[in-house]
Amino acid sequence: MDIRTNLCKLVLAATVCGTLAFAGSLSARELVVGASPWPPYDSEELPQRGMSNAIVGAAFERAGYKLNYVFDMWQRVLEGARMGVYDFLPAVWYTDERARDLAFSEPYLGTQVRFLKRKDSDIKFNQLSDLEGYMIGVVRDYAYGEEFLEAPGLVRINANFVVQNLLKLTQRQIDLTVGDQRVLTFKLSRQMPESMRQLEFLTKPLDQRDLHIAVSLQNEDYKTILKDFNSAITAMKADGSYDRIVSDYEAFIASSESKK
């Protein structure tokens, strides 16, 4: 059985387990989801539309909802959720600015932002001052956090895409790149598998963040939606279906199996 088939079965099991508890008391409630391509978390080309949506979709189906996905650029879906065009965003880091227009769920998945280097490099990282003078590949408009972006002495080299920084790193044009660990691992495994053995993550993460769903405050039922989602995630963790989905998706991310 391949990883994608196993993922489908796990998500189906997670949703069926909870559906009976809601049957008879709820009819399917439809929500429009504004999703932005961010593999492996959000993607139309991945099983269950990505890791985040595998979890989020299973939770909402368990809670008796039907989800209709619309994929678009990040700024468009963010603005659409603020205006109420979309009911919620499925994979979002919390910020105070976003919370003015969106209501956030309890965290459902942890993420780590980490530095990636060549294995033949002896770079060590305990504090940002350790990285002064090194050329660090970053992606424009990425939410690295103020501490990193404002730290003096760091040489930040901008690129438009993650894979550009990965190529620069293997070609010795930069010393480090930094990003979400799962995103970097996924990009390497799919687009540069021959380079995976040449690179490694620094032990200490730059940051640890949680993913939430973010429900539009324009939706008058936002409190109910959040309550139902949070309850479903709790139930999935209790019956083990949450851990099985996460574990299988972690294996899928690190594999070189085709995304099609």
Give the gist of this structure.
The protein is an alpha/beta fold and 260 residues long. 38% of the residues lie in helices and 23% in strands.
What structural class do you assign from the helix and strand content? alpha/beta
- Compute the gyration radius: what is it? 19 Å
Proportion in helices: 25-40%
Q: What is the CATH class designation of the largest domain?
A: Alpha Beta
What is the terminal-to-terminal distance? 16 Å
Give the overall form. globular
| CATH topology description of the largest domain | D-Maltodextrin-Binding Protein, domain 2
Which CATH-level-2 architecture of the largest domain?
A: 3-Layer(aba) Sandwich
Strand content: 15-25%
Largest sheet: 8 strands, mixed
What is the arithmetic mean of pLDDT?
A: 90
Query: What number of structural domains do the residues give?
Result: 2
Going by CATH, the homologous superfamily of the largest domain would be: Periplasmic binding protein-like II
Low-confidence stretches: 11-27
Total helical segments: 8
What is the chain-wise order of helices and strands?
Answer: HEHEHEEEEHEHEHEEHH
- Tell me the number of strands: 10
Structure explained in plain terms:
There is one protein chain. With 260 residues, this protein is an alpha/beta fold. It has two domains: 3-109 and 209-254, D-Maltodextrin-Binding Protein, domain 2, CATH 3.40.190.10; 111-207, Periplasmic binding protein-like II (D-Maltodextrin-Binding Protein, domain 2), CATH 3.40.190.10. Helix content is 38%, strand content 23%. It is built from eight helices and ten strands. The chain has helices at 3-22, 51-62, 74-83, 146-150, 162-170, 181-191, 222-239, 241-254; strands spanning 29-35, 65-71, 88-93, 102-104, 109-118, 135-139, 155-159, 176-180, 199-201, 207-216. Strands 3, 4, 5, 6, 7, 8, 9 and 10 form an eight-stranded mixed β-sheet that branches. Helix 1 runs parallel beside helix 2 (51-62), helix 1 (3-22) packs antiparallel against helix 8 and helix 2 crosses helix 7 (222-239). The longest helix is centred in the first third of the chain and has 20 residues, at 3-22.
